[in-house]
Design a protein that fits this description.
Blueprint (H helix, E strand, L loop, with lengths): L7 E2 L3 E9 L3 E8 L5 E7 L9 H12 L10 E6 L5 E6 L4 E2 H8 L4 H20 L2 E2 L8 E5 L5 E6 L6 E2 L33 H5 L5 H17 L9 H10 L5 H4 L5 H10 L11 H12 L21 H6 L4 H9 L2 H21 L8 H6 L22 H4 L5 E2 L8 H10 L3 E2 L3 E3 L8 E5 L5 E2 L4 E7 L2 E3 L8 H10 L3 E8 L8 E5 L5 E3 L3 E8 L26
Parallel strand pairs: 13-17, 14-17, 19-22
Antiparallel strand pairs: 1-2, 2-3, 3-4, 4-6, 5-6, 7-9, 8-11, 9-10, 12-16, 15-17, 18-21, 20-22
Protein name: non-specific serine/threonine protein kinase
EC number: 2.7.11.1
Catalytic activity: L-threonyl-[protein] + ATP = O-phospho-L-threonyl-[protein] + ADP + H(+); L-seryl-[protein] + ATP = O-phospho-L-seryl-[protein] + ADP + H(+)
Amino acid sequence: MTSGTSDLVGRRFRVRGLLGSGGTASVYEAFDVEAGGLVALKMLHPHLATVPGARAAFLREAERARRVEHPGIPRVIAIGDDPADAIWTAWTFAPGATLAEIVRTEGPLPLPRATRVIELVLDALDAVHRAGLVHRDVSASNVLVHRDAAGEVSGASVIDFGLADVVGRTTRAGDVLLGAEQDRGRGESRIVGNPSYASPEQLRGDPVGVAGDLYQVGGLLHVALVGEPPFVRPRTEDTVRAHLSSVPPTVSVRVPGVPAALDRVVVRALLKNPDDRFASAAEMRAALVAATAGPPRASVSPVRPDPPPPPASPAATRVLAAHEPVRATRVGSSPVLWALLAGAAVLVGALVFALVPRGGPVEARDAEVAPTASVAPSVPASSAPSAATVAPVTETAPARVGVPEVAGLTLDEARAILAAAGLRVAPPLSSDDPRPAGTVLALTPAPGEQVPPGTAVALTVASGFTVIPDVRGRGADEAQYTVASAGLEIALRRVPTTAASPGTVMDAEPPVGTRVQRGARVTLVLAGDPATPVPTASPSPSRPTPTPTPEPTP
């Protein structure tokens, strides 16, 4: 604490309760008496403050997190680095429960809610990766899920950047803070990470990149759907061995009704070779959305009738040349077989007559009466090979492709995916949205719709501007979360008043509804405690000033 009599950390934060504790720090719910509202106050364990370099390593987490701007990543508010005080960092408060708590108390999430949580996590990680960082500790305990009154997922936050680092570094415990939990006196450098989620390369001590985070997201998706990590084993050593060598599990074996496409997303994320996984968080998110969208995706061909067998040809005959003597003898010596072939030719001719258009579209009733047409007897028995005339039936069906899901990707990424699918991109439209400028928000035709190749797809992308939401009348915590989710920075100002309860938002500057650039700063005007009137001292009654009496002149 800052003094022997103050209960404020950093002369600003009043601790109200414990949120959680780990190997290196404890996280408290605290009230910001300077700006108002709740914060998450992370404090280094006192016994680690004496470890050389631990202070700098602890504070490095906040410095890394400051490089990321996203509603799903808590923002650093303040840092305390006073040698005579506790070592702490203050973060924006993210409401909700961890995914681990939800699964433990309520069981696995329904499919739509589970995939929604993972989509939000991937959105946040995409921002982390764009900042040149990898999280390296994505787990159910480090994902906060926000839900509305109906229980639907309204947001998610990725927390705890204690293991975060630039792309390509290892997680060996050579770092004084990462290695603080290892046995004292052991000289070896151990691997640091959550054994239930760590990627094979992380467990081997190899450099960890974006694919390592996506491996952990695959495990997170397995937890959300099944209720436990993908490689649960009796001993930690067995779990590590499974991460290194076991085939990824199939979710639908445990949860009937999970689509095969979603199974493929989980398995691909959990593949052992990083190069075989998704290339980016945006790509994995697009695959997840496509797997759960319902309609057939671009990779699924429409169902068509089986084509008729191809006519005999010299090439086909050469392939079967070894059997020619037997086939020729049997056909030539079997009048019954010739009769059957002749009958088949009659039926094929009738079928051709029924299927081939005759001067316009063939309605259902035409197909029903076609077999009775008297043209069938006119087909000679020797014309059996005429089955080849059925080929135009398959040629008349135009080729179609499914529109791939590209919402959430950048405009350049979406263009590349649509071009690979054989589709064109119409000039994009823009719309105000909290997401970064150029992010694809929607597309027409809808994802999964089957369209002719070359169809132009209209994309709506984020303009880079957003609108200040109306949070008047709300509490400070809820208002801050709403404004941050709109992609805006927040400042708080308290005004003494009796017109509203303390902590209630009275106004915003600029005013609510104003269109501003994403990332702009918005000041929320909060109701403060009414000013206490200072009593005015009553004036003392005036007394006449005595006039000295002149002494008589002698």
